[in-house]
Amino acid sequence: MDFTSNKNNVILNSLAEGVVTVDKDFKITFFNEAAERITGFEKEKVIGKYCKNVFKSEFCFSDCPIANVLQNGKNVYDVDTLIQCYNANPLSIRLNAAILKDEDNKPIGGVISFRDVTIFKKIESFLENDSLFMGMIGTTKEIKEIFKLVEEISSSDVPVFIHGETGTGKELIANAVQALSKRKDKNFVKVNCSVIPQNLIASELFGHVKGAFTDAHKDRMGRFEYADKGTIFLDEIGELPLQMQPQLLRVIENGSFERLGETITRNVDVRIISATNLNIEEVIKKEKFRRDLYYRLNVVPIELPPLRNRKEDIPFLANHFIKKYSIVYQKKVECIDEDALELLINWNWPGNVRELENVIEYALIKTKREGSLCICCLPTKIRDSIKCKRKDNGTKNIFEKNNTQLIELLNENKWNKTKVAEILGIDRTTLWRKLKSIGIN
């Protein structure tokens, strides 16, 4: 590929990812606009220089991705490292590296594409340091007992059955069980039984051979086979078709199955974690789920309480999500006002923790202020007709006393007077009269 042609320059400069090419001597031959923006280096000042002298990454002197791809011919994907930027601050990036070849398919150097992942690294660090247990927040007795149980079964391979309403964190518990288990370094396969069409569920779980059905053009490994020696998470297990349940029961009992359309018996060693939001006893009574299968899956039951039954955790969860999304949206918000928190505590939370997280993210997106979240940032369904005290104080002062801040507020909202009036807690006509009084029509 000729990186010097105008057409290719236009294409590569339109990318959001940084793109850098080097020759066989590791001198930089191309530097796109995104690379300039991300690193702060000017293209004219780095072209022709050795890339290690520019980026000074830990890989440059010990395990260079370009050197590796030139040596073994295999491309490199999603490698995380730090590079030096123009302002001398290190930057977290995620890069891909590939061999650059000429028209005769001969290696002439390498190409690296990269993106800034600083925010994601901050989120990862925050989640590691701020969480009480494996990414989960909980202080109530019930939740702490669940955390303790997950630790207690870490040395066992017994099946785990997680029950809880939608949004209570069933997948997080499954992740914790797997992460603390003896199989944590093996494959962890997740299957949502409710979204796979019934005519494909057998193929998805156990695989098929070529010709087993119309679209079976080649042999295919199933999820259980892929999870061999590891763990499989069967989410929404209550939705599993009745005709599939004997096959699942057989795998649990003796670890054997056949691919669809095949007579060869295969064996696997898989630890099973299952979850549902259904009342499984009611499903069994309706003869839509086998009782013997339930007993096999329910060796270690975990019952997750709904958020309305653990309201003591709401302040901790709310502040956890505030910190998380303040990083995501780069806003200086540290907490939530007491009256807004009271509304959250009194809300019924039909969507549980997931709904609370969505509400906090919505509030972070909506707020224009620093410091803390107020009532006016919450969704209408939660705050209803309750007025925001901060509107009556801070923003009202802007309206009544500080014309400069009022104009700034209008500029921030692109002179959308309806939106600004809503932020100020006044009628649009009142705002119009105010603007007219200071000479703005």
Terminus-to-terminus distance: 58 Å
How much of the polypeptide forms β-strand, as a percent range? Answer: 15-25%
- The count of β-strands is 14
Shape: flat
Q: Provide the spatial order of strands within the biggest beta sheet.
A: 2-1-5-4-3
> Mean of the pLDDT scores?
85
Class of secondary structure makeup: alpha/beta
Commentary on this structure:
With 441 residues, the protein is of the alpha/beta class. It has helices spanning 6-13, 33-39, 43-46, 51-55, 65-72, 118-130, 141-152, 170-179, 201-206, 223-226, 245-254, 280-285, 291-297, 314-328, 338-346, 352-366, 380-383, 389-401, 403-412, 417-424, 428-437; strands spanning 18-23, 28-31, 76-84, 90-101, 107-116, 160-163, 188-192, 231-235, 256-258, 265-267, 271-276, 300-303, 333-336, 371-373. A hairpin with a 4-residue loop joins strand 1 and strand 2 (28-31). Helix 6 packs antiparallel against helix 14 (314-328), helix 11 (245-254) crosses helix 13 (291-297) and helix 18 packs across helix 19. The protein is flat, with a radius of gyration of 29 Å. The N and C termini lie far apart (58 Å).
